[in-house]
Amino acid sequence: MYRTHTCGALRISDVGQEVVLSGWAQTVRDKGYMLFIDLRDRYGVTQLLFNEDISSPELLEQARSVGREFVLQAKGKVAERASKNDKIPTGEVEIEVTELTILNASSVPPFTIDDDTDGGDDLRMKYRYLDLRRRPVQENIMFRSRLGIETRKHLADEGFLEIETPFLIKSTPEGARDFVVPSRMNPGQFYALPQSPQTFKQILMVSGFDKYFQIVKCFRDEDLRADRQPEFTQIDCEMAFVTQEDILNTFEGLTRHLFKALKGIDLPAFPRMTYDDAMRRFGSDKPDLRFGMEFTELNELAQHKGFKVFDSVELVVGINATGCAAYTRKQVDELTQWVQRPQIGAKGLVYVKYNEDGTFKSSVDKFFNTEDLKGWADKMGAQPGDLMLVLAGEADKTRKQLNELRLEMGRRLGLMKPGDFKPLWVVDFPLLEWDEETERFYAMHHPFTSPKKEDVARMLSGGHETMKSLRADAYDLVINGSEIGGGSIRIHDRKLQEKNFKLLGFTDEEAEAQFGFLMGAFEYGAPPHGGIAFGFDRLCAVMNGQSSIRDFIAFPKNNMGRDMMIDAPAPVHPEQLDELHLAQTKID
Amino acid sequence: MYRTHTCGALRISDVGQEVVLSGWAQTVRDKGYMLFIDLRDRYGVTQLLFNEDISSPELLEQARSVGREFVLQAKGKVAERASKNDKIPTGEVEIEVTELTILNASSVPPFTIDDDTDGGDDLRMKYRYLDLRRRPVQENIMFRSRLGIETRKHLADEGFLEIETPFLIKSTPEGARDFVVPSRMNPGQFYALPQSPQTFKQILMVSGFDKYFQIVKCFRDEDLRADRQPEFTQIDCEMAFVTQEDILNTFEGLTRHLFKALKGIDLPAFPRMTYDDAMRRFGSDKPDLRFGMEFTELNELAQHKGFKVFDSVELVVGINATGCAAYTRKQVDELTQWVQRPQIGAKGLVYVKYNEDGTFKSSVDKFFNTEDLKGWADKMGAQPGDLMLVLAGEADKTRKQLNELRLEMGRRLGLMKPGDFKPLWVVDFPLLEWDEETERFYAMHHPFTSPKKEDVARMLSGGHETMKSLRADAYDLVINGSEIGGGSIRIHDRKLQEKNFKLLGFTDEEAEAQFGFLMGAFEYGAPPHGGIAFGFDRLCAVMNGQSSIRDFIAFPKNNMGRDMMIDAPAPVHPEQLDELHLAQTKID
Q: Where is the stretch described as Aspartate (chains A, B) (predicted)?
């Protein structure tokens, strides 16, 4: 037996006990006549004591040979520490070591294994096994494990079945790019790795399983922006005989349970907001509700007053930054430059300071008098001391720009408080998006999403413009400005599904070849059904107030999709390609 | 809301309640003045009643239009049934329907959706969504879900962390053939799908996670024998600071818990048997201990008595079939033919009937007298009324043949009782297997398996013959003749790992290119560790006394690795190959 206790277990009440501990040498402090080693494992740190009184010269000598990250087994007696450390639970005791075994030595690690490390990203990804020893990373991975367990417990208690769906499926043209897997037994044919178990979970509803979930890996071969991973994890769920209302309530319940069980937090109400409202009030389909700063549209008040920049545009819209009237000229200029950066793309920024003395100072004083600006202030709910920031231009673009500005002001004003969680359901998404460039419709959610009941007839009979106005029974769960889940009620009628594929540009043959099995299933008694999928990596990050999902993945890939530790992907033996009847073509 | 209750919920105590049920029409029985529909969901079946007294003519008409597998919503009052059905929990009640909604119609299913079906394998795989509606299949899938939940609960309670390992990893030449995934972002390079998370779970031990598990898909591109699947599921586990003893105890605990929680069964003791003993006593490394019929070696008694067939061979070995002395000549001939089939390959079968009257009748009476045969009987523990069956030949082959015969006799004599579960740890497997054909060693378990402590020195310094005699800290969990789990203590020392790779025919460069990251990790404080993996599909089948894992997989593939429902694999668009810089070569 390698240990009687972990390095996080011993307390003052254990003094006098003979124990055996195993772990890693975190630090070695040699004081000459005595020597301390902090022994670490995932449960904590315990101090080992060697000194001339209790240890033989050989033992002290051996302890002196120990370096950082050596793996040790120490036998000894628990004793009360002379100088206690109240920062750790084991800080009142130490082990008077009588026997030490060096289970494995360690070279000097390439970076320090501590809460803060001096290792750069690349080095830490290459030596991921060492980075994973650091406390903050260990805690993330342990959090993720607990989150998975709690999710499963809760959903199982609610009657959900976890059912595994296949990883070797079929490539479909819809959505993101698939990873493909050549089949040796079926030459010239390929599997694809699933982007989600979407069609399979719908099939399970047709099969009568009623309540399905799975915590499951999904794959997308996309160009990797920061914080995207080619493989990621979903909490994937589907229910039969439900309306949108049932689903929202069920997964509000799950979310509440997870926050309570993992963080001890009772979430506030989950308000609902239509997609249209969210765009109009926040310029985003995932507004961060930790702070207000809602949009105020100023067209009526601000247009036709002689300011040409406003007069010619579709939308004049602003936000009120509480208490920012004292911003200096320099600060306002800097904000203006900020919104003019190419990533944001605003042409300019109009500001109106509502001074503490009730006067106004703005960048448009030439065109608007005090009364005008008081009118803006009243509409925006601005008080003396506030700063109004106004953008103008094409409606959709301007809203997006103002959303960025709102978030930036929220950051600058410290309004995105860690530990504050504001959930929101965004509902009534459009069914289809028209893309001007390719002149076709795209599914806003995916091709299996149902239009709202009241829109079904219009969808089956309407013309092109009607299609643009169809609303879907689709919903997103947003927390603090992050989309952590999304789903929809699905089509369960073959005719409606055929119509949807046609709108999305599928020929009948293509629809049949790709999704014939699903439409076939709809002919044999498909129940009404719908579901949702949570981004599990994202949920981990959001619950911990962090922004990077990579920190919650044990073995993440870098922006080129590479695993730096194992050095994958890599060339394969030519015979492997021969067996698959494939050849490499020229790489430019 | 689509339903107030499931179809398995209502009881006599609910009589009088207004309820809404949704489900599938299992049967429609039209009696003219009244009509019954059995409404089914995964929770049960409830009878719907329509009759001229309570239902409007329109409602009766509508009910008559219902066909098998239609999806219905029925509103009505719970009533006591006139003729009760005590075979189902809802059998005392029925619903007097006042409102019926046909949620979806169904074409006539291609096979009957019932416990026994008339559908053939191919048809049921194509219409898997209908096959999955059948009660026995649903129960398998629900069992699997519960087994997963219980496994996770138990391991989490024992302090294990579930940590996800990547699916896009690197191809390695060792073991079975990998499925490969071309990387678009890294042209000319490939990921591989994991055959198991082996190296990653070892890395997690080096990282200090201590107790890891994962229920995880694994992939092997093998020619599919019956009951193999290209993707299958493992309960994958690893622990640090443990000996073989710790692991055996921990996973005996898991197995006991699962049998108790899922089947209400207290498993008997888990005996341990060395690989050598298992081969000598049962001719198999996974003996079925539900019955005895152990091997008795007869060389001493049976050789050099003038029977040349025996005299020239390495091994004469037999089993005693209790109570089979009355086998007719025809039965014995048939058994002889059975062992001579090419799959078994025995040259012949010697039988000795120990008649009830104490006399012997054998196929070797010419060479052995009564005293000789009495000696055999004594050694084999045979009693009057028994039948001794003896094979002779090269030791390994003969043991394997006698193993087959023992199992066949077990089947014929009904000794493999359903509901009887006999677990067994087989331990001390050889480390290496010498392959005469390729003239090289193969890892019996895998290249990361540690030799037993007492064999380490011999491994580092010994010659070729020594290597054949090395024993590993490797173990299998066998239940009723099925291997349901296997694992080992791993090497955690770089030098020993290098030596093992060399023995397995790796050059230093190959070992470094494939597993450099792992050997690198061993240099930075790798703890002693070991683990085990359970075949999850197999465990499901064994716990239910079934032989096919396919019945416990929601969407299995056929023997050609095809998903018949979605028709995968399939050709991909040529542009997809172009993007991957791949071209199809000629397929013969």
A: 198-201
Task: Using alpha carbons, list the distances in angstroms from residue B280 to A388, B151, B269, B294, B396.
Answer: 88, 34, 22, 9, 9
**Residue in the block written with tokens 């009640």:** B93
- What is the sign, positive or negative, of the torsion defined by CA atoms of A254, A257, A261, A263? positive
Q: Alpha-carbon distance A456 to B346, whole Å?
A: 71
Beta-carbon separation of A526 and B555 below 8 A: no
Is residue B228 annotated as involved in ligand binding?
Answer: no
Position B223 scores a pLDDT of 83
Please check if B158 is assigned to a binding site.
no
What are the strands, taking DSSP E only, across B516-584? 529-535, 582-584
B231/A203 touch (CB, cutoff 8 Å), yes or no: no
- Start-to-end C-alpha separation, chain A: 58
Contact B209 A149 (CB under 8 A): no
Does the pLDDT of residue B154 top 90, yes or no? yes
Residue-level length of chain B: 588
Class of residue A465 by CB neighbours under 10 A (exposed 0-12, middle 13-18, buried 19+): exposed
Of A247, A241, A238, A245, nearest to A527 by C-alpha is: A241
Closest Cα in chain A, distance from residue B127 (Å): 8
Quick one: what percent of chain A has pLDDT higher than 70?
Answer: 100
Q: What is the pLDDT of residues B158-194, one digit of tens each?
A: 999 999 999 999 998 777 899 999 999 999 999 999 9
Amino acid at A336: T
More confident residue, B442 or A175: B442
| Burial label, A105 (beta-carbon count in 10 A; 0-12, 13-18, 19+) | middle
Q: Looking at the complex, does the CB of residue A261 fall below 8 Å from at least one CB of chain B?
A: no
Query: Which chain A residues are Cβ-neighbours of B583 within 8 angstroms?
Result: 582-585
Residue B464 known to bind ligand: no
- Is A575 exposed, middle or buried, given 0-12, 13-18 or 19+ CB atoms closer than 10 A? exposed
Distance of CA B13 to the CA centre of its chain: 43
DSSP state for residue B215 in the 8-state scheme: E
Token pair of B196 as six digits: 């198991």
Asked if A293 and A271 touch (Cβ cutoff 8 Å), the reply is no
Q: What pLDDT, in 10s, does the model give residues B404-442?
A: 999 999 999 999 999 999 999 999 999 999 998 988 999
Q: Are strands A272-274 and A423-427 parallel, antiparallel or unpaired?
A: parallel
3-state secondary structure at position A484: strand
Structure tokens at B10: 């209502």
Contacts of B21 (CB under 8 A, 6+ apart): B3, B4, B5, B6, B7, B39, B46, B48, B73, B74, B95
What is the distance between the alpha carbons of residues A137 and B163, in angstroms, rounded to a whole number? Answer: 13
Contact residues, A window 18-57, toward B, CB-based 8 Å cutoff:
22-24, 40-43
- Residue A514 DSSP SS3: helix
- Residue B80: predicted pLDDT: 97
**Which residue's entry shows tokens 């060389």?**
B299
pLDDT number for residue A552: 97
Task: Please write the tens of the pLDDT for every residue from A75-100.
Answer: 999 999 999 999 999 999 999 999 99
Q: Is B538 marked as binding a ligand?
A: yes
DSSP A263: I
Q: Is the pLDDT of residue A358 over 90?
A: yes
End-to-end CA distance of chain B, in Å? 58
Largest CA distance in chain B: 93
Integer Cα distance of B519 and B490 in angstroms: 12
| Edge-to-edge strand ranges of the sheet holding B360-362 | B296-297, B315-321, B386-393, B350-354, B360-362
pLDDT over threshold 90, residue B501: yes
Domains of chain B (ranges, CATH numbers):
12-104 (2.40.50.140), 291-412 (3.30.1360.30), 423-531 (no CATH)
